[in-house]
Amino acid sequence: MRDITSYSCLDSPFGPVFIAETMRGVCFVSLSKISEVEFQSLLRKRFRKDTIRDDRKLKDVIRELSSYFNGHQVNFKSTLDLSIGTEFQRRVWEKVGEIPYGELKSYKWIADEIGNPNGVRAVGNAVGRNPVPPIIPCHRVIRSDGNLGGFSSGIALKKWLLKLEK
């Protein structure tokens, strides 16, 4: 059986969202404004596998994301494939995944929770490399001083996602 990455796209209130899945689970969600060709290229570069569009295969995660983007609280059930991350990144992503809907936590809180209180900057880098937003809700992570910090898809989208959850 060929090792491929399947992908699909959904229309969200802020534009197209591309989703990719390996045989192990959802591996990548792009909230950035890119074309399908650019997304395919990004997948090939990141995962070094053939890509194929398969809307039917990703219908469940599309349904979850569509519901979320339409303002519903969603308990994401999709299996994730986070093998692209380092062990440290996966620990950070797991902790971020525990942040409840509508709540905010700081990078410092995450560093403390994973037993690396001096690793705030490393935590910030790992959060910024989250491959599956908002399934792993990195937009819920802010600076200790209350400022929003960064967001890989832009601060305007981070604000939009936080407002959606209010």
TrEMBL record:
Q: Does the keyword field hold DNA damage?
A: yes
Q: What is its EC number?
A: 2.1.1.63
Q: Give me the reactions it catalyses.
A: a 6-O-methyl-2'-deoxyguanosine in DNA + L-cysteinyl-[protein] = S-methyl-L-cysteinyl-[protein] + a 2'-deoxyguanosine in DNA; a 4-O-methyl-thymidine in DNA + L-cysteinyl-[protein] = a thymidine in DNA + S-methyl-L-cysteinyl-[protein]
Query: What CDD domains does the entry give?
Result: ATase (cd06445)
Q: Which InterPro entries match?
A: MethylDNA_cys_MeTrfase_AS (IPR001497), MethylDNA_cys_MeTrfase_DNA-bd (IPR014048), MethylDNA_cys_MeTrfase_DNAb (IPR036217), MethylG_MeTrfase_N (IPR008332), MGMT_N_sf (IPR036631), WH-like_DNA-bd_sf (IPR036388)
Cite the Methylated-DNA-[protein]-cysteine S-methyltransferase DNA binding domain residue spans from the record. 87-166
Q: Does the keyword Glycoprotein apply?
A: no
Q: Which UniProt keywords apply?
A: DNA damage, DNA repair, Methyltransferase, Transferase
* GO biological process terms held by the UniProt record: DNA repair; methylation
Return the Pfam families for the record: DNA_binding_1 (PF01035), Methyltransf_1N (PF02870)
Methylguanine DNA methyltransferase ribonuclease-like domain ranges (all copies): 7-82
Gene Ontology MF term list: methylated-DNA-[protein]-cysteine S-methyltransferase activity
| Family of this protein | Belongs to the MGMT family.
PANTHER family hit by this protein: METHYLATED-DNA--PROTEIN-CYSTEINE METHYLTRANSFERASE
Q: What is this protein called?
A: methylated-DNA--[protein]-cysteine S-methyltransferase
What organism is the protein native to?
Candidatus Scalindua arabica
